[in-house]
Amino acid sequence: MPALNIRFARYAVSVLFFFCGFIFSCWATRIPVFKDAFDLNEAELGAVLFMLPLGSFIALPFAGWAVDKFGSRLMSVASIILYTVSLYALSWCTSIFALSVLLFIFGFMGDNVNIAMNTQGLDVQHKSEKPILSSFHGLWSVGALVGALVGGWTLKKQLSTHDHYLMILFPILVITVLTFFYLIPYDDKSEDGRKLLAIPDRALMIIGIICLCCTLCEGAMADWSALYYKEIVNDVSKVSTTGFTAYAFTMAIGRFTGDKLISALRHRKVLILDGILISAGMLLALSTTIPGLVIAGFALVGFGVSTIIPISYSIAGKSETLKPSVALAAVSTIGFTGFLIGPPIIGFIAHETGLRLALGVVVILGACVFLLARQAVK
Q1: Rounded to two decimals, what is the model's pTM?
Q2: DSSP readout, 165-225?
Q3: How far apart are CA 136 and CA 156, in angstroms?
Q4: Of 121, 119, 327, 326, which is closest to residue 205 (Cα–Cα)?
Q5: Mean pLDDT of 105-127
């Protein structure tokens, strides 16, 4: 493929990653609206929200098969379209049952997007002959940020959820269809001996466990860091999300700079560094009550988690036993468990021992990433 087409393919994949983060964030900003509309308490809301990761988890085996069967180009575009349409459909829900079913579908389509666009991203990375997957994930973070800003603007203007989602529906659909003509048409099939169905080998399992450690950290930070910061600062005049904002910001920066770091140090050394940053950052945040140091600790954790998923996907895509899309699905299946079990585990430990000790789990997870990368990653 000519270099110019590779450049356009990179732009097209970048758009997909941006849209994926943007769409998810547009949903997240409207969660309080759905809570009020259906008069849900916290327990009921939690049960409804669980349908989204459940749909994502169940989608993983199907997504790997579908991408291998139909190709990542078609699946990327089709999945983004259905992902956007399912978001719009949420605005029409009139019952908790309908909301739960559509959230399941929304999560299901979201993970089809995840596997398809990462497979397409690996194809572009392979043809570019340099690490670029981390920057794609950085664009997901940018999309999520823009989605949050747009969502906040629509709430400020008192636009309905229906109007909000209708406003973004057609631009996303049109641009997504246009990306189809610039994506790489055929996935890498050079390893014809790789299987569509097989038990992940030891190397893939270890990468999956590293992914699991990362998602557990991400879940803990997303759900509990703002509460912990509020408890530490103990000042209602301060913004409780400051710590999480620092974490999210450095994670995005880490993803954009990650490709150059990976080129210089390679996968093993970067993962080792990630583990050190996660453990050191959380230790700093937990060992002080000075707000600035707590924020600095959270920022280090953000840098630490930033490149783990892109590196894990890059390694999985080179599996000698499974086809790239299936290897990605296998690693994602193991890793995604962290999003399902992480927040409840932290909550249970926090209830028994306090939030400070509960978040100490993140220190242990960082150490696990360090040890696994040092012993098992080449």
Answers
A1: 0.82
A2: HHHHHHHHHHHHHHHTTTS-SS-----TT-BSS----HHHHHHHHHHHHHHHHHHHHHHHH
A3: 30
A4: 327
A5: 93
Rounded distance between C-alpha atoms, residue 150 and residue 226, angstroms:
22
Q: 144: pLDDT confidence band, cut at 50, 70 and 90?
A: confident
Give dist(CA 33, CA 12) in Å, integer: 33
Measured from the Cβ of residue 366, the count of other Cβ atoms closer than 10 Å reads 27
CA distances from 251 to 118, 135, 228, 288, 307 (A): 18, 11, 19, 22, 8
All structural domains of the chain with their residue ranges: 3-179, 202-376
Instruction: Among 1.20.1250.20, 1.10.530.10, 3.90.550.10, 3.40.50.720, name the CATH number for the domain at 202-376.
Output: 1.20.1250.20
Q: Coil, strand, or helix at residue 322?
A: strand
How many Å apart are CA 282 and CA 302, to the nearest integer? 10
What pLDDT does residue 240 have? 59
Strand-pair partners of 322: 195
Max Cα–Cα distance, the chain, nearest Å:
61
